[in-house]
Write a structure and sequence with these properties.
It is an enzyme of class 2 (transferase). Pfam families: CTP_transf_like (PF01467). Its EC number is 2.7.7.14. By secondary structure, the chain is of the alpha/beta class. 37% of the residues lie in helices and 12% in strands. The chain has helices spanning 16-22, 30-38, 56-61, 84-88, 103-112, 155-161, 185-196, 208-215, 224-232, 250-255, 279-283, 298-307, 309-338, and strands at residues 10-13, 45-48, 67-70, 92-95, 173-178, 200-205, 239-242, 258-263, 287-289.
Length: 339
């Protein structure tokens, strides 16, 4: 949405120190976040170490006409609006955030070990029906803007993220499949290398029950619809197969004219019948194992959260308290205007 408001999108990414000071400990470190933001298909330029409080001087330094942010309240360490200066100067625009998707939400799912965000049964493959509901009523993690909630998927949202381009005749088509849960730098590096193996990259995403079967616990942390949007936002990805079969079949390879199937260095779990899910591409001589160059996995991301559980719980409580104070102040302003 921010890119649609202009012609060139510059994204400022804060340092770990700035985020910790104003918001709480980040899940991904600054180097990981710099690379991940650069890989978003709509981003033209990244400013590393951008100040947490956006000023007119910052906009002018990088030749920006205005600043864009979501419609959630963002406060600094003192409890003041982070964007107060650009708002006063009328150089601020707002867009609607993707409902139900936030770092706080995902952290809550990890800490509470919930499964209610999974799409199961008749909803396993759905992307066209709006779903809503609270997956937790825990007051320590719920707030009006960043509390635990369920993502609202629609086909319109999927279309907004999709590239919509078909492969050209003669293109080498590469296929990869997996959960791609809590999209991180390991996934990004792997997709970058997979795309380098050909011209057109298709990513098959397994449904929530399938992922839960081979990963257990309350995985995936992100449901299918959230994972679809995460992967589609990556500039290396051309197409996504929603609810791809766990085993790469002959029909799938022939239908998409797949020339190469790649998999990372993570262990390959057998299918429900005990078979190798990559038997077909291996028999055709069209399978390749790739190393992402990163040792970060979804499990390690979760471990980061669990190991710093108290820090993140404190962050959530502090954030909710500041948001509530800001909300009450906003309501008082409206009452004054009405009277």
């Amino acid at each position: 949405m921010a890119k649609a408001m202009g012609d060139y999108l510059i994204v400022g990414v804060h340092t770990d120190a700035e985020i910790t000071k104003h918001k709480g400990p980040p899940v991904f470190n600054e180097e990981e976040r710099y690379k991940m933001v650069r890989a978003i298909k709509w981003v033209d330029e990244v400013v590393e170490g951008a100040p947490y409080i956006t000023t007119i001087e910052t906009l002018d330094k990088y030749g920006c006409d205005f600043c864009v942010h979501g419609d959630d309240i963002t406060l600094d360490a003192s409890g003041q609006d982070t964007y107060r200066y650009v708002k006063e100067a009328k150089r601020y625009k707002e867009c609607s955030r993707t409902a139900g998707v936030s770092t706080t939400d995902l952290v809550g799912r990890m800490l509470l070990l919930t499964k209610q965000h999974h799409s199961c049964g008749e909803r396993e493959y759905e992307v066209d029906k709006v779903q809503s509901g609270s997956i937790s009523k825990d007051p320590s993690t719920h707030s009006p803007w960043t509390g635990i909630s369920q993502f609202l998927p629609t086909t319109h949202k999927i279309i907004q993220f999709a590239e919509g381009k078909e492969p050209k005749p003669g293109d080498e088509i590469v296929y990869v499949a997996g959960a791609f849960d809590l999209f991180h730098i390991g996934h990004l590096n792997f997709l970058e290398k997979a795309k380098a193996e050909g011209d057109y990259l298709i990513v098959g995403l397994h449904t929530d029950p399938v992922v839960n079967h081979y990963k257990g616990c309350n995985y995936p942390i992100m449901n299918l619809h959230e994972r679809v949007l995460s992967v589609l936002s990556c500039k290396y990805v051309n197409e996504v197969v929603i609810g791809a079969p766990y085993s790469v079949t002959a029909d799938l390879m022939d239908h998409f004219r797949v020339g190469l199937v790649c998999h990372g260095k993570t262990p390959i779990m057998p299918d429900v019948d005990g078979s190798d899910p990559y038997t077909e591409p291996k028999s055709r001589g069209k399978f390749k194992s790739l190393h992402s160059g990163s040792d970060l996995t979804t499990q390690k991301v979760v471990e980061r959260i669990i190991n710093h559980r108290l820090d993140f719980e404190a962050r959530n409580k502090k954030k909710e308290k500041k948001e509530l104070a800001a909300y009450e102040a906003l309501m008082k302003q409206k009452e004054v205007r009405i009277s």
